[in-house]
């Protein structure tokens, strides 16, 4: 006789039947893969995909240009691990050219400056790379600094997922702690925690994030803390309500009679049984964190240049929406939309699979 499936096995079976949730899960796995191996997938593997070629700024998707590869005095050395984490500095300078011809010992080229404007340059072959001319195609075009939009979009995935992950961990840690204290002990502890929740909830999220960001300063790590400390109230409220119901059940009463400590009862007997609703709200907070980070970067108080962020990319290129090249701003906008949609679909699927009827 086959044993009956566990709760989590049954939930996984129900989740697999939800096509929207599985599509979201697949997109999330793809985003994670792109974030981890971004510098190996990116056409521009330089740190932060920050190869600036001003002459080709603001070009449309599919733009193709020949480049003369001039050796740098110092070569960029990078191990596999350092390249995985921060990319590899370019060994050559990329000079855009309109045409070129080779002689026995040099390359003479027409340097591209602007449409219809060129300048004659010549380099000895010893000063050039083994392959002196490289042809590059910019599938999503270039921004106003001549950087490859596709490359920055790929590296920017790392920022969005990192912010989502760390802020969710922060919000879960703080929210579960305060929610457990309020729900389990009740009384004055509950009143104090609920007062704090109501105060923070009354402040608009972006305004609260601005305050935390201004206190801690602008930067990559400050965004994690700022967003994480604004999303814990939903978790705390949910955990409080769930624990208030669960602590009245018989197995909790039995644990108290056996003399178990409050910490053990909460950590080992109550929290594992309310993990389903917590998982659902974690997926929702992940999506919210991505949107908030993009908004902060767009307003200039989030991730700082040259580090690529989807919100920062929209800020740098939004003026192109009403001019000749809207894709420069629309591409990161579509990326934000797809990633947030993926987490929302997964969250809805988890809610149905775990039979979470609603949030308390």
TrEMBL record:
Name assigned to this protein: ABC transporter permease
Location in the cell: Cell membrane
Organism of origin: Flavisolibacter ginsenosidimutans
Keywords, ordered alphabetically: Cell membrane, Membrane, Transmembrane, Transmembrane helix, Transport
Domain ABC transmembrane type-1 span(s) in chain numbering: 157-347
PROSITE patterns: ABC_TM1
One GO term of the biological process aspect: transmembrane transport
Membrane topology, as annotated: Multi-pass membrane protein
Family that this chain belongs to: Belongs to the binding-protein-dependent transport system permease family.
Chain segments annotated as transmembrane: 21-41, 161-185, 192-214, 220-239, 274-303, 327-347
PANTHER family reported in the protein's UniProt record: D,D-DIPEPTIDE TRANSPORT SYSTEM PERMEASE PROTEIN DDPC-RELATED (PTHR43386:SF1), OLIGOPEPTIDE TRANSPORT SYSTEM PERMEASE PROTEIN APPC (PTHR43386)
Pfam families: BPD_transp_1, OppC_N
Origin superkingdom: Bacteria
GO cellular component entries: plasma membrane
């Amino acid at each position: 006789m086959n044993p009956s499936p566990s709760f989590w096995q049954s939930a996984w079976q129900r989740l697999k039947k939800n096509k929207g949730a599985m599509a979201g899960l697949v997109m999330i796995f793809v985003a994670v893969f792109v974030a981890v191996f971004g510098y190996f997938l990116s056409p521009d593997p330089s740190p932060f995909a920050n190869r600036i070629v001003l002459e080709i700024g603001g070009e449309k998707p599919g733009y193709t240009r020949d480049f003369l590869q001039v050796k740098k005095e110092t070569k960029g050395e990078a191990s596999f691990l350092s390249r995985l984490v921060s990319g590899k500095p370019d060994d050559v300078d990329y000079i855009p050219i309109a045409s070129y011809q080779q002689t026995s010992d040099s390359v003479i080229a027409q340097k591209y400056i602007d449409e219809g404007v060129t300048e004659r340059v010549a380099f000895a072959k010893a000063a050039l790379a083994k392959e002196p001319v490289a042809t590059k195609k910019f599938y999503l075009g270039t921004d106003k600094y001549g950087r490859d939009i596709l490359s920055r979009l790929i590296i920017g995935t790392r920022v969005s997922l990192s912010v989502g992950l760390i802020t969710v961990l922060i919000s879960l840690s703080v929210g579960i702690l305060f929610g457990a204290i309020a729900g389990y002990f009740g009384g004055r502890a509950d009143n104090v925690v609920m007062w704090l929740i109501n105060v923070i909830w009354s402040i608009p999220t972006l305004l609260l994030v601005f305050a935390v960001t201004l206190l801690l300063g602008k930067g990559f790590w400050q965004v994690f803390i700022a967003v994480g400390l604004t999303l814990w109230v939903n978790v705390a409220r949910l955990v409080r309500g769930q624990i208030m119901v669960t602590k009245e059940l018989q197995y909790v009463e039995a644990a108290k009679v056996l003399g178990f400590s409050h910490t053990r009862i909460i950590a080992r007997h109550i929290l594992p049984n309310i993990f389903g609703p917590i998982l659902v709200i974690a997926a929702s907070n992940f999506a919210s964190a991505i949107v908030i980070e993009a908004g902060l970067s767009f307003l200039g108080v989030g991730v700082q240049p040259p580090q690529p962020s989807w919100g920062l990319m929209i800020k740098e290129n939004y003026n192109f929406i009403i001019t000749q090249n809207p894709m420069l701003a629309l591409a990161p906008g579509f990326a934000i939309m797809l990633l947030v949609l993926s987490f929302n679909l997964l969250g809805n699927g988890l809610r149905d699979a775990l039979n979470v009827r609603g949030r308390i």
